[in-house]
Design brief:
Largest sheet: 4 strands, antiparallel
Order of helices and strands: HHHHEEEEHHEEEEHHHHH
Distance between the termini: 65 Å
Radius of gyration: 29 Å
Number of helices: 11
Oligomer: single chain
Structural class: alpha+beta
Strand order of the largest sheet: 1-2-3-8
Number of strands: 8
Helix content: 55-70%
Shape: globular
Length: about 400
Amino acid sequence: MADISAGRTSRPASVAWWRDERKRGIFWQIVVVAILCAAVWYIIQNMIDNLRTLGVTLGLDFLNAPAGFAISFSLIPTDLNSSIGRLIVAGMLNTLLASAICIVFATIIGLIVGICRLSKNYLISRLATAYVEALRNVPLLVQLLLWYVAILQLFPNVRQAVNVLDLMFLSNRGVNMPRPIAEDGFGIVLIALVIGTAVAFGISRWARRRQMATGQQFPSGRVGLALIVGLPLIASLALGNPISWTVPELKGFNFQGGMVLQPELTAVIIGISAYTASFIAEIVRGGILAVSHGQTEAAYALGFRPGTTLRLVIIPQSLRIIVPPMTSQYLNVVKNTTLVSAIAYPDLYSIIGTSLNQTGRPVENIAIMMAFFLTISILISLFMNWYNKRIALVER
């Protein structure tokens, strides 16, 4: 009699879920997530109960209340009658302004110092080394205080301000300079600037593809700069210069008109930029040293000059090593701005501190500050990760 079971497909024996590695891993992940959610819920509930016991309710209604205090510097109009929310926005803008300027200057200074450390000139390399070792081993707060005190002592009082061509005045209250005022037709100048920038970007992309395909170089940098500067200049001349200037004048005990670059902002820019540049310099030096020396020798054999070799051969290859740690330095710049309240610069941290003392709303104020820094940090990380993927070496 034929074996009936011979034609049947054998099925694997069922395994208990606690013996299945995949199912067991999923189970423990669910358990960990549940424990974390329970812990967060307990902390939040405990905080709400404690605040309710103290008679404090959560909410953002305090943002519409009059602040009752003023700040010394703001990119938007503020006064004693401004709301707390408006001053917090002003603090955010001040933090972004200082961070953006410091990132640009720190990158430029760090790149120069990092290259100088590799110079064959003994004096230049030793000066760059001294710069790095001196600044990165001194706390940033100490450097900010040093720069702030030094700037205040170097600048004279208002009545003895240093006059530069009757246009700029240097005093212990800052640097007073002319302020541009947009007139009719200024929008066309801005449109010309946008068009010039877009065309310069397009030329840069075309020149890069052309060089990759044929090896021929095109002066895209000079052409792009001419377009970005030339088109708005031509539009401005054609419209009769739709920009007027208000010049600062000494009236009473202070200057009137123009705009002022405060000593606090100057100290912030110098202090954070110089401090961060010392770390960026080491990142640049390490990235350049990671490129094989054979690349340099090959470029010299083809007749490239040292500057051209550095710009076209060494730096492009070292960027894939430089960019990831540079992201951390840019994030540190933003977070280090919380120290500038020590020299009276009205950043978000200092304004949140004053608002917390006046409103008695610590949770909401700190949550706003955390959300701001978290958002900015994530945006910087996303941009740097995108740029890192864009410059990555692609195998053919």
